[in-house]
């Protein structure tokens, strides 16, 4: 199954340019089997997500992208924003209490400076030593909005950290949907299934919705 683990809709994410119905229908057209709604520091109501899934006859799952002091994290298993989530250690505790999952989104940001590519190895070593990544279950190594260099850096970082790799579009516009996704080995029908498979590591990133 191909699932986009990282998408944004308007107005839940104010920097997005697509409504949620448009997001879902476009994802279907692009060959995806499911999408996760991961708004910025906001959680969809579970009943609303279930209603969207039934309406579109498509797998729609809830998550969130949390902006923390150390970077952005995709979280699955929580249902509401709680003060203090901007601290990675607080977020980790909340996710573990609920048996959820944390994925580091676009991990090159703040760490890989394209204006100084000659410092690649130094930047990689610094990122590898960052305790921020120690709380993650996986790393987003293929981001549809990232450059080839940025995704390469994320891939090398994930390998160095021995973390499983995910792919996602990080779409804010319809044109970006289908640019990247995660292929799961087993069927995913619920949020619980998604968390189980992410914790088990039975997945791999792909660069487009057609599996390339």
How would you sum up this structure, described in words?
The structure is a single chain. By secondary structure, this protein is an alpha/beta fold. The protein has one domain (2-206): Metal-dependent hydrolases (TIM Barrel). 30% of the residues lie in helices and 23% in strands. The protein contains 6 helices and 10 strands; from the N terminus they run βαβαβββαβαβαββαβ. The strands form 2 sheets. The protein has a 5-stranded mixed beta sheet, sandwiched between helices. Strands 4-5-6-7-8 form a 5-stranded mixed beta sheet. Helix 5 (148-161) links the parallel strand 7 (138-143) and strand 8 (164-168). Helix 4 (120-128) crosses helix 5. The longest helix is centred in the C-terminal third of the chain and has 14 residues, at 148-161. It is globular, with a radius of gyration of 16 Å. It starts with a strand and ends in a 6-residue tail after the last strand.
């Amino acid at each position: 199954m191909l699932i986009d683990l990282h998408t944004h809709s308007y107005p839940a994410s104010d920097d997005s340019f697509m409504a949620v119905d448009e997001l879902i229908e476009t994802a279907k057209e692009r060959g995806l089997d499911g999408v996760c709604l991961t708004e910025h520091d906001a959680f969809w109501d579970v009943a609303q997500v279930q209603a969207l899934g039934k309406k579109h006859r498509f797998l729609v799952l809830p998550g969130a992208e949390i902006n923390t002091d150390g970077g952005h994290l995709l979280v699955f298993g929580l249902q509401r924003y709680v003060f203090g989530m901007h601290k990675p250690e607080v977020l980790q505790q909340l996710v573990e209490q609920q048996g959820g999952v944390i994925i580091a989104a676009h991990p090159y940001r703040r760490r890989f400076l394209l204006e100084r590519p000659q410092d690649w190895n130094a930047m990689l070593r610094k990122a590898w030593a960052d305790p921020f990544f120690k709380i993650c279950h996986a790393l987003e190594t293929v981001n549809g909005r990232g450059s080839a260099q940025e995704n390469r850096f994320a891939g090398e970082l994930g390998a160095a950290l021995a973390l499983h790799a995910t792919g996602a579009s990080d779409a804010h516009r319809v044109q970006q949907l289908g640019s990247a996704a995660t292929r799961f080995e087993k069927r995913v029908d619920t949020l619980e299934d998604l968390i189980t498979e992410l914790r088990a590591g039975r997945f791999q990133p792909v660069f487009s919705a057609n599996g390339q």
